[in-house]
Fold these 2 entries.
Entry 1:
Amino acid sequence: VAIYLHPATKILAGHEEALQFIEKSYHNLGFRHLRRLPVSGAFHTELMRPAVAPFKKALEKVDIEMPRIKVFCNVTGKPYRNEVEIRKQLVKHLVRPVKWEQILHLLYSRPQEVDFPRTFDMGSNGVMKGIMARVNSQAAKTCFIV
C-alpha cells in the first residue's frame, strides 16, 4: 500500500508485473474496484530507494524551520515535533506509505461536545472534502470548497 486514502480506498504501487497481476485478479483478491492512476513511478514504496540518497543530499542544502502551525507528517500520521524530525521524515516519505486516513482521524477525532474546526478544500474541486466525508462525515459538514 502506497497511500491509505480512506477506509474503502488504498492506493497500491509496485513493479509493473505485480500491478498487471492485480489488474487481472483483483476480484479474486477481494477488491471491489480497481483503476490505474496515471503516475510515472511507484511512489511511497521501496522501489523509490534509489532516489533517497540524492534527495537527502539536496535536502541538506535547504533551511528547515518549524512551521508556525501544526503540520502532520504523512509517514507517521502525527504532527512534526522539530526540524530534525522534519528532515528525517521527508526522506522516509519517498519510500513509506502516506497515512492520509490516519491523519484525518487525528485531526477530527474529538469529544461529541467539541465542535469541528472549519476546513477549507482549496484546489481539489471537492475531492478532498469527499475523502474527508468517508473518514468522518460529521467533520465534512464543516468543510468548505474554495
Entry 2:
Amino acid sequence: MPTTRILKTLYSTRSVSSAAEWIIQVQSEHVPYFVIDQVRQTPEEISAMVLTKMKETAEAYLGHKVTHAVVTVPAYFNDAQRQATKDTGTVAGLNVLRIINEPTAAALAYGLDKKGDESQIIVYDLGGGTFDVSLLSIEDGVFVVLATAGDTHLGGEDFDNRVIDYLAKIYKKKTGTDVSTNPRAMGKFRREIERGRHDFSETLTRAKFEELNMDLFRKTLKPVDQVLKDAKVRREDVNEIVLVGGSTRIPKVQQLLKEYFGKEPSKGINPDEAVAYGAAIQGGILAGDVATQKIALIDVNPLIVGIETTGGVIPRNTIMSTKKSHMFSTAAETQPTVRIQVYEGERTMTKDNNHLGTFELTGIPPRHVWTTTQVDDDDGLGGKITNEDRQTLLALVKETTNWIESEGPQAIAQELEKKLREVQAIVNPITARMYQKPGADSGYEPGHDEEQEPFHSHDEL
C-alpha cells in the first residue's frame, strides 16, 4: 500500500477502499480513519508504521539508535499534507529535520558530482501515486529550483486501474459476472491478477497498454510545459532530463519525453532510489558533513499563497524564504479590527483552496480628516478661486472632454492612468491653494507620502 497515496488527500481513498479488509470511516471533521481488525487508525498512524519499520532496519544496519530524519514529499503537496507527513515522523519517534520535495532530492543525487558551467535540468518524477516536474539550475554545487508543477492524482496506480477496468470488462464478457459493481469483488479481482493466478488469463500487449493510457501519458507533459513557461526557459535550453520513479521505465513515457525535448532522457541514476539518495545528501548537509559542505539548495513554494480579499500575495515558484508586503485599507470608517485569512492554492474560490490560518490586526487607530467648507453666494466655491485658475480649469475640462471622446474608447489602461496623472498635476495645486485661503481652515495638511502617492489600486478588508 503506497503511503504517499494515503497521505495524498483527505478525501480520495480509492486505493485503500479497494481492499476488502479495510473499512474507511470519514469523521465529521473530514479526517478519514482506517479500521483494521476493528482498530481505528489515522493515515498518519498507518504511514508511521512504515517509517517505524524503516527506522528499525536502519538501526539494525548501523548498530545505533536513529533519532533524526529527512523526509521527502511530492513537490505539489500543500502545507496540510506536508504537516501530516511531519506528524507521521513524530509518531514514528523521529525528529523530522526537513521536508524536501522529491524532484529536488533526486536532483541532489543526480548533480552531486556535476562541476563547471551552469546546466539546467528537468526532473520528471512519475511514481506510483503522484507526478511532479521540477526545473533546476545547477552550478558548482548550488542547486536552484526555478519552477515546479505536478499532479497529486496521477501515477502508476492510475495506469494499473485502466488495465484492471479493461480486464474486468473482458471478464464480464467471458463469464457474465460484473465485478466492477462490487468494491470487495473488484479488490479481490485485482489481487488475483497481480498474483498471476490462472483462473482468468488474458494477453495484454504493449500496444494495448499504451492505447489504454495514452491520454494519461500525454497529460504528464502539461506540467512540463508549465514549469518551462513559469521559468521562461525554452525546451531546447534544457541540458538533461532526469527520470525518477518506477513509472518512468514505461517505454512510451520515455519516447514522449524524447520527442518533446529532442534528446534522450538521462538514465544515469536509479529511478527507484534517486530520491532516497538525495534525502541522504540533504541529511549530510544538515549534519555538517564535510563532503556536502559546498552544496547549497534553494527551493521554491509550489502553490500561490494569498489572502481572502486579494488573491496571490506570494506567487508560486517564489524562492523560499521570502517576505511580501501589500497595502490595504479598511472597508469601513473607524474600523478598529481587521481579520485576515491566509490561503494556499491555485483555485479562484477561497473555499476550494487550503486554509493556512487566520489572524487579526487589532487596535487600528480610527482616523478622521476634518474639513470645513464654506458655501457662499458666489457660486459655491467660486469665491475662493482666482480668475486665472478658473480659466485653467475650464480649459482643462474642455481639453480632457475632447480627449475622452476621441481617444477614450480605444485607450488602454496605461494611457488612461497617464491622462489621469496629467489632470491631477494641474488640478491638485489649484485645490491646495483654494483651501489655503483664509476662512477655509481644513485642519489637515497632506503629508509628503500622500502627495507623492502614485496611482494604484488597493484592497479593502
